[in-house]
Amino acid sequence: MGEITKEMTAASLADFESNRKQLAVQRAVVKNGILESAENVRSHTENVPVFSIDLHTGEVANQKQSGRCWMFAALNTFRHKLLNNFQLKEFELSQSYTFFWDKYEKSNYFYENILATAKEEVTSRKVAFLLQVPQQDGGQWDMIVSIFQKYGVVPQYVMPESESSSNSRALNTQLNKKLRKDAMILRQLVAAGKDEATIQATKAKMLQEVYNFLAISLGTPPETFDFEYRDENKEYHIDRQLTPHTFYEKYIGVDLDNYVSIINAPTADKPFNKSYTVEMLGNVVGGKEVKYLNVDMTTFKKLAIAQMEQGETVWFGCDVGQSSTRDTGIMATDIYDLNDLFDIDFHMTKAERLDFGESLMTHAMVLTGVDIVDGQSTKWKVENSWGKEVGTKGFFVASDAWMDEYTYQIVVRKDFLTEEQLAAFNEAPTVLAPWDPMGALA
């Protein structure tokens, strides 16, 4: 192994100090910071928040200090329908309700994966992967579908936010501590040769403790409630004794089985027009399988546009931290010019970033508009879930080039797919490793 010598360091210093441009840049960056010094003002003027297709969505929601973006994004697509169908000025569905059941189901999913791998060494990659983060706030579209289908949804006022749903770090820390200890106990039972009934009885006690923990932290999920609201015409409405399922069926009514996840992963191991799933990725045992159809980016964007042209917003997953400003809400590949700032070539292709761990899906939001000029998309309107203090009242703008590079997943209706695409989606999927970047949770 080659060490760094004093002579090498001295030469590096001399080279740096001989470059007057670098010394000037140093002063700017030390004073203002890297991104602030690299920000490209022209990118703001090219991404003004005006769109040829701009769907009505109401005010943005706020996930606060939690990783529930995938859940917020899905509930936001439902909220858009409610606002329009029932003439509501503002309305939110309970993110705390779905959060509760997701945590409960993820705990059971973790237990079952621990039991499935109980005869592997604790140092095996799969077991180490499970124990690293037994559960977390994030998820994917098919996972939230499993929650909706099993537990329904409720208005936010029926199960409002709590401190632990809005700021979930302490909840996750303690729940993961419990799950790791439970994993140890379950593995010990298997090693001792205990029968299945004993193991499942032990797991049932563990799940009761998880339920109690969640109920104390988040509140108890309602079984029935009254739906009460006043529409934009000031007319009062009330619907009594609804369950989470009857509320979903009556007021949302979306056939979730009619939606498919489309990804763009241009890596050599994932040929286009093939379906994929990820091992050990899910939340509800017996729930909906996480499954994708991989397509090229041109097809990907056409599908998203087709759905918005019919008045329906689009759930999507991306790497939000790449080339984006939080305060002004611009996501553009040229928003920061780091290559010129440091005189370093940072460029990698989308496939290279996925293969070498530089990018993956980190956040889910909703596409609510797109600007089309001469038949081509130029920029996209994005509903975020970080409150209305960021971006333009909470909405971001993504350049078309940014979409190409950092967007990985959309959810669209099956009827937008060609027969060939639908047949490819319906094929038995290729199973990806648990740590594949397409298994990242938003």
From TrEMBL:
Q: Supply the alphabetized keyword list.
A: Aminopeptidase, Hydrolase, Protease, Thiol protease
Q: Which Pfam families match?
A: Peptidase_C1_2
SUPFAM superfamilies under this entry?
Cysteine proteinases
Could you name the domain of life of the organism this protein comes from? Bacteria
Cross-referenced CDD domains, in alphabetical order? Peptidase_C1B (cd00585)
Q: Which family does it belong to?
A: Belongs to the peptidase C1 family.
Q: What is this protein called?
A: Aminopeptidase
What is the organism of origin for this protein?
Enterococcus camelliae
